Amino acid sequence: MSRKILVIEDNEQNRILMRQILKYQGHEVLEAADGAAGLVMAREHMPDLILLDLQMPVMGGFAVIKELRDAPELSHLKVIAVTSFAMKGDREKALDAGFDEYVTKPIDTRKFAETVKNFLPDESVALKKPVILCVDDTPANLKLLENILVPRGYEVVSVANGSDALLKIKSLTIDLILLDLMMPGMDGLQVSRKIKNNKKSRNIPIVILTAYTGAGSFIESLGSEVYAYLQKPFKTEELVKIVKAALAQSPGKMS
Q: What is the DSSP secondary structure assignment for residue 121, as one 8-state letter?
């Protein structure tokens, strides 16, 4: 299946090589010769994958990835660093900055094609259900959320603590988080801040669900980190309304 891939690279020969590999695989290729132009094209075309050089005039790759990860509408885009950098620690630096993968030049054409394939969404992505991560240490509460959300077409991933929630966020694409406030080990406040301090997860909407009557002061301390909060016990229609509104703000824009 053809995918839209944006190549942001100032070296014409490198662009030609990547273009040939990608078009041979049947993909549509968009090209930009500097980071600033690449950002404009990313916003305009919303590509399935971006191949981004690190050293470029006008705007380098690290500046571009920061702009991408900081923008809610762009933060979900897959981005691979393609660079001549090969010093110890460069890969880790790139991944920490928000890149999904790191490929060095000169390009190994066979490995390059396989890496690109691994980071493209599969054909079923258009039919993908919104994924909601429910975090609550009470099994009955998780079951209630599943009973409300699954029949309405949402995919629900349930975990009982903050540590497991962070692992799920790292391994899965999550569109919305429903987060209990009062939990042992790591409370909702701590979990939320860890999520928002991570470049890849900071734009996932978070809705706090809590029985704590003094939750308002906790939520206010989070500021814009939390989309909304709902007092337990809540009405089904209240939850569904907030879920739909929050998903409309999600990077994946699925509701």
A: P
Q: Is 204 exposed, middle or buried (0-12, 13-18, 19+ CB in 10 A)?
A: buried
Task: Name the 3-class secondary structure at 1.
Answer: coil
Task: Give the strands of the sheet with 206-210, arranged side by side.
Answer: 155-159, 131-135, 176-180, 206-210, 228-231
Q: In residues, how long is the chain? A: 255
Whether the Cβ atoms of residue 51 and residue 18 lie closer than 8 Å to each other: yes
Residues 127-182 pLDDT 10s: 578 999 999 999 999 999 999 998 888 999 999 999 999 999 988 889 999 999 88
SS3 of residue 163 by DSSP:
helix
- Residue 213 Cα to chain centre, angstroms: 32
Residue 254 binned pLDDT confidence (cut-offs 50, 70, 90): very low
What domains are there in the chain, each with its CATH number?
Answer: 4-124 (3.40.50.2300), 129-247 (3.40.50.2300)
Strands (E) in 49-173, as ranges, are 49-52, 79-83, 101-104, 131-135, 155-159
More confidently predicted of 120 and 81: 81
What is the SS3 assignment for 235?
coil
**pLDDT one-digit tens code per residue, 11-43:** 999 999 999 999 999 999 999 999 999 999 999
Token code pair at residue 109 = 């054409």
